[in-house]
Write a structure and sequence with these properties.
InterPro entries: aa-tRNA-synth_I_CS, Arg-tRNA-ligase, Arg-tRNA-synth_N_sf, ArgRS_core, DALR_anticod-bd, Rossmann-like_a/b/a_fold, tRNAsynth_Ia_anticodon-bd. GO terms for molecular function: arginine-tRNA ligase activity; ATP binding. Helix content is about 50%, strand content about 10%. By secondary structure, it is an alpha/beta fold. The strands form five sheets. A five-stranded parallel sheet has the order 7-6-5-11-12, sandwiched between helices. It has a four-stranded antiparallel sheet with strand order 1-2-4-3. Strands 8-9-10 form a three-stranded antiparallel sheet. The protein is globular, with a radius of gyration of 29 Å. The structure holds arginine (ARG). Arginine binds next to strand 11.
């Protein structure tokens, strides 16, 4: 849109403008222009700070040289920028038409993405360990990975969602022995995650005893030798756990295309060790372990252990085999791993070894890491199961709903509570930079006012009910002359920035740009609601519709045009929500949604 508006005034082909023109962020305090051209991005040698005054001067000169036309109504110079104001009516018309035309693909179809090639990405996320805790790090990996996958899909890329389970290793020796002692087949079927965890805790207590240790070792050895009975019990642990995970992930709106796991790479990691040896990369230590030297000077100042002294593989060996297999199988353009930052070293080593092995595609692998979250507790205490978090979200939100007088009668309060609560949880998590640690607070996350997921849900519900009341048939008659109030202009200007925000998040994979965009959008929508009321009763509506066609309104402003602003906001809210987590947002639930703010019903 920006290029179309400005290419004539600047006398430059649109494709030259894509990267140098941006929409000006809306400001509460003052009226702002619509677009700005950054002088630094159009002049070549602009990296040095000492050029700043020169940039200002250049901006001024350029602004003086350019002439307004029917499209651009004002041109001014700012610090290092030339600012443009578009003819107000044209702005309103173009933005609204674009939103209506592109619908849920608004922003995605922007020229900003025209040069970005469509890619295939394997995104590995969640990846919990069977029989161990599903801790908050796994929860964060799940929602962040899902966000990245949703965003990429929304932008037209091909995505494979992969869950790489911790389903192998000595813990299965202990678990096997534990199951023989304390296990119960019925419980394994009905609640595998909880039962296996309990068995694991019990056997760990007993593991001090030398005999138990020996039994566990034997069990794991039999597993590695593919003893039929042992393998069949292990397979039941795995299969039942996956079934339960699928059910719980569904509540979060998450699914996987592939359930992979460390167990797949037991044999293949032997091949990796052979390859390392053949390439002269594997060194034996006095203790008999196998290491790869990662130091530049080859003085072992940095190394990675890839083989135990008994010749068996480690976590990193299985990851090496898994990465090679993923690339062979999917031939993807990018491979992303989402885990907390405590594993940054692991992934650095993994990528370094792959590089030494000659796999140039490692350049296209990326570890997306995130910070630690403290203080998330449920009624049952510290987080052990994902399901506990989801139940806590639901019951806390139900309680909030019960104590809010303005809550509407709703069909399925449990489901609504869960969706609104999940939005609250996700937005709290996505507001900051992923790498920052933060202190979790249920109260802060669940506030109905302020920058929370509850507020977004509320805005969404309000817009949705507006949309339902006004229907779509009005969208053809846009009287843009009635959309000139500052609050309407602010919404339009904010909508102009939507593609840039999507672009930014797609580049650095940080959800916070989208979240803060959405929150601003919701604040602007709230303001527009107050100052630009849309009439909602049917007979009145018929009257104002009529007046809107005549270009005049009975109530000061044009409700049709105002409704359009709301629709536009709504469309972009919807498509953004879809990136965050579609199932956390009750998009098809109409207005029958929890309305937590006083005075809104
Ligand atoms: N299961 C591991 C854990 O819970 C996370 C796996 C991360 N992915 C990987 N390819 N190593 O710590």
């Amino acid at each position: 849109m920006r290029c179309g508006f400005l290419s004539k005034v600047l006398d430059l082909p649109p494709e030259n403008l894509i990267k140098s023109i941006s929409a000006v962020p809306v400001s509460k305090k003052r009226r702002v222009a619509d677009f700005q051209l950054s002088i630094a991005s159009v002049t070549e040698d602009s990296s040095s700070d000492c050029l700043a005054p020169d940039l200002n001067l250049q901006a001024q000169k350029l602004a003086e040289r350019l002439k307004c036309d029917a499209v651009v109504s004002e041109i001014s110079a700012g610090p290092g920028t030339v600012n443009f104001t578009i003819n107000r009516e044209l702005l309103a018309k173009t933005v609204l038409q674009q939103v209506l035309k592109d619908g849920s693909e608004y922003g995605v179809k922007s020229e900003l993405f025209s040069t970005v090639p469509k890619q295939k990405a394997v995104i590995e996320f969640s990846s919990p360990n069977i029989a161990k805790k599903f801790h908050i790090g796994h929860l964060r990996s799940t929602i962040v990975g899902n966000f990245i996958a949703n965003l990429k899909v929304a932008l037209g890329h091909e995505v494979i969602r992969m869950n790489y389970l911790g389903d192998w290793g000595m813990q299965f020796g202990l678990l096997g022995v534990g199951f023989q002692l304390f296990g119960n087949k019925e419980k394994l079927k009905t609640s595998p995650l909880q039962h296996l965890f309990e068995v694991y805790v019990q056997i760990n207590k007993a593991a001090e005893d030398e005999n138990t240790k020996k039994l566990a070792k034997d069990f794991f050895r039999k597993l590695e030798e593919h003893d039929e009975q042992t393998l069949s019990l292990w397979k039941q642990f795995r299969d039942f756990s996956i079934d339960e995970y699928i059910r719980i992930y569904k509540r979060l709106g998450v699914h996987f295309d592939e359930y992979s796991g460390e167990s797949f790479y037991q044999e293949k990691s032997k091949e990796v060790l052979k390859m390392l040896e053949n390439k002269g990369l594997l060194q034996k230590t006095i203790k008999g372990t196998g290491i790869v030297d990662l130091s530049e000077k080859k003085d072992l100042s940095s190394f990675s252990t890839v083989m135990r002294s008994d010749g068996t593989s480690l976590y990193i060996t299985r990851d090496l085999a898994a990465a090679i297999d993923r690339m062979n199988k999917h031939n993807c353009d990018t491979m992303i791993y989402v885990t907390d930052k405590s594993q940054s070293n692991h992934f650095q080593h993994l990528f370094q070894i792959l590089k030494l092995m000659g796999y140039d595609w490692v350049e296209r692998c990326q570890h997306v890491s995130f910070g630690l979250v403290q203080g998330m507790k449920t009624r049952r205490g510290e987080v052990i199961f994902l399901e506990d978090v989801l139940n806590e979200v639901r019951s806390r939100m139900l309680q909030n709903m019960a104590s809010t007088k303005t809550t509407k009668e709703i069909e399925d309060p449990m489901e609504t509570a869960e969706k609104v609560g999940l939005a609250a949880l996700i937005i709290q998590d996505f507001r900051g930079l992923l790498s920052s640690d933060y202190q979790f607070s249920w109260d802060r996350a669940f506030q109905s006012r302020g920058d929370t997921g509850v507020f977004l849900q509320y805005t969404h519900a309000r817009l949705h009910s507006l949309e339902q009341m006004h229907g779509n048939e009005q969208l053809t008659d846009i009287n843009v002359a009635c959309l000139q109030e500052p609050d309407a202009i602010s919404v339009l200007q904010h909508l102009l920035r939507y593609d840039e925000v999507l672009y930014r998040s797609s580049q650095d994979l940080q959800p916070k740009h989208i979240v803060s965009y959405l929150l601003t959008l919701s604040h602007l929508a709230a303001m527009a609601h107050k100052t630009l009321p849309v009439k909602d009763s049917a007979p009145e509506l018929a009257q104002v519709r009529h007046s809107a066609v005549r270009g005049r309104s009975l109530c000061g402003a044009d409700p049709v045009a105002e409704a359009l602003v709301c629709y536009s906001v709504h469309f972009s809210v919807l498509s953004l929500y879809a990136c965050l987590n579609p199932s956390a947002f009750p998009v098809d639930r109409g207005s029958a949604v929890f309305l937590p703010l006083a005075g809104c019903s």
